[in-house]
Amino acid sequence: METKLLIGDRFEGVLLETIKGQSSTRPRVRPLEYFDKDIRVEFPRHLREDNPIGTRFRADVKVSQKTKNGQPFGNPYLVATDRSIIKIDDFVPKKIIQAIKLNTASDRTYAYIEKEFKEEPNLIKFEDFRERAYKNAIEIPEKTAESLTSNIKRSDLIKTYALSRARGKCEGCESEAPFLKRNGQPYLEVHHIIELKKGGSDSPLNVIATCPNCHARVTHGLDGIEFNEILKAKIQKIENQLNQ
Fold first, then answer.
1. What is the distance between the alpha carbons of residues 184 and 229, in angstroms, rounded to a whole number?
2. Weakest mean pLDDT among 37-46, 175-184, 211-220
3. How far apart are CA 174 and CA 85, in angstroms?
4. Which one-letter DSSP state was computed for residue 118?
5. How far is CA 218 from the centre of its chain?
6. Which residue of 65, 110, 112, 233 is 20 to 30 Å from 49, comparing CA positions?
7. In this predicted model, what pLDDT tens digit does every residue of 78-100 receive, in sequence order?
8. Band of the pLDDT at 244, cuts 50, 70, 90?
């Protein structure tokens, strides 16, 4: 049953849950009782980001609304009182989704990686993310049933790792990404140096984050084959430096 919202009202011990954001790549929080699940909940950022999607909390909340020129502005929202927040440790989501912070030009950039974690995950550091990328590398990617010639499963983790490693710059020409996407993420394209359908692996050493120009040069350029070899050498050098 939804509660009628009166600005200033307070509610104790409301059950809350972290979820994927719909209009943003950042995780957000929704109420699981009393209120419409679509209502915005103002909740500490570090708790949203340091815990997997599906984590549940109990917290006291206050109904609030912004004002403009002394008049109510926008929709009412809930504000969780920091000191009242309690994490429900005995609840574990069936499938944990961790919010990965990318090492890109935008601090607001996040991607979601679905992964079964055996330990309590925190916001993954690049070094830990890199280790997971290597552990999840696939030397011979599986072909899907839809098409045995073109549709091959690709790992979101490997793709996200390449974008994270690039830090917002093309790993080919080393220029800044040509523009930012609507979610604030630098626009780069992930290229498999040896195509998956030609036996290439889905692994950190076989992916490179490039600008559209460099990607098109490999595919359509007169020197595409030679340029692709240059990209291969660059990634090997980058990965070797990261090993040091």
1. 31
2. 175-184
3. 44
4. S
5. 27
6. 65
7. 999 998 999 998 777 766 666 66
8. confident
Distance CA 58, CA 188 (A): 39
pLDDT number for residue 172: 96
C-alpha to C-alpha distance for 121 and 115, rounded to whole angstroms: 10
Tell me the percentage of the chain whose pLDDT exceeds 90: 43
C-beta separation of 78 from 41 below 8 A: yes
Residue entry with tokens 């073109």: 150
The three-point CA angle 126-127-132 to 5° equals 95
Question: Residue written as tokens 């091959």?
Answer: 152
Q: Is the pTM of this model over 0.70?
A: no
Q: How far is CA 172 from CA 61, 176, 189, in A?
A: 49, 11, 11
User: Cα separations (Å) of 118 from 45, 123, 219?
Assistant: 24, 15, 40
DSSP character string of 21-84? -SSSSSEEEEESSSS-TTS-EE--HHHHHSS-BT-EEEEEEEEEEEEETTEEEEEEEEEE-GGG
pLDDT band at 226 (very low <50, low <70, confident <90, very high): very high
Q: Give dist(CA 158, CA 204) in Å, integer.
A: 6
